[in-house]
Amino acid sequence: MFTLLFFSSDIRKVLVVDLKIKDVAELLQVSEKTIYRWIKENKIPSMRINWQYRFNRDAINEWILKNNISVAEPISDRTESVRKADIVECLKKGGIHYKVNGSTVEEILRNAVELINVPAGLDKETIVWHLLKREAMMTTALGSGIAIPHPRTPLISDISCESVSMCFLNSPVDFKALDNVPVTVLFIVLSANQPRHLQILSQISHICRKDEFIGLIRKQALREEIFDYIVKEKQNWDIHPKK
Q1: 44, 111, 118, 176: least surrounded by Cβ within 10 Å?
Q2: Residue 75 has what pLDDT?
Q3: What is the pTM (predicted TM-score) of this model?
Q4: In whole angstroms, how far apart are CA 11 and each of 6, 16, 18, 79?
Q5: Nearest CA to 104 among 125, 135, 127?
């Protein structure tokens, strides 16, 4: 595969356009025809080079986050020298919690945050405020009864403090999901920066597309079962990374 590099007016900035139409279509689980339509409607960031469209990976990542779009599999990070976000380690820190009470989004988020493990020095009320602010902008519900509440901006700077907390609700709550399915499980994400935040979101999204994992969610499986499944998925990504 080859990568095109473009220098901006600031010589220190390099724009890497290494994704093709088929790559973005595969990532977003839509047809190539849909990608072409989005380009025509200026709905997705792209560049036209020698009569072909190319995409910058970082720009697409930002677009995915801005539009709260779930992706087919973990987004590849080509910076091998930087330690990638690890859904398994994050979930170990945040924990898996059951029987979260509440009948509204605010009640659920407040009660969930009371249960989760948070970094020392980070006030839980601050977390709740940021989660509610994010939900007010746009629902974090993915569909199928799953939501991924997260602050719009990072609340921590140390990657060793990043966490994902999985919270099963005592009863379904309406998060205004596009599929109109009430939410039954939350993944509360606390990340250190936007690239790592996108990595975590995409890993969660990938797992939540698996029928076996959806089955574990529906029966509110034991912590051990959930961890075992996610560990196996993570090992599969490591053995068979996206080309």
Answers
A1: 176
A2: 47
A3: 0.69
A4: 10, 14, 19, 20
A5: 135
Domain with CATH 1.10.1660 in the chain: 4-66
pLDDT value of residue 111: 98
CATH code for the domain defined by 4-66: 1.10.1660
% of the chain exceeding 90 in pLDDT: 45
Domain 87-239, classified CATH 3.40.50.12780, yes or no: no
The tokens of 196 are what? 């790592």
The answer to whether the CB of 55 falls within 8 A of the CB of 47 is yes
The low-confidence residues of the chain, meaning pLDDT below 70, are 1-18, 58, 62, 65-83, 239-243
Q: What is the pLDDT of residue 68?
A: 59
Q: Please give the radius of gyration of the chain, using alpha carbons only, rounded to the nearest integer.
A: 19
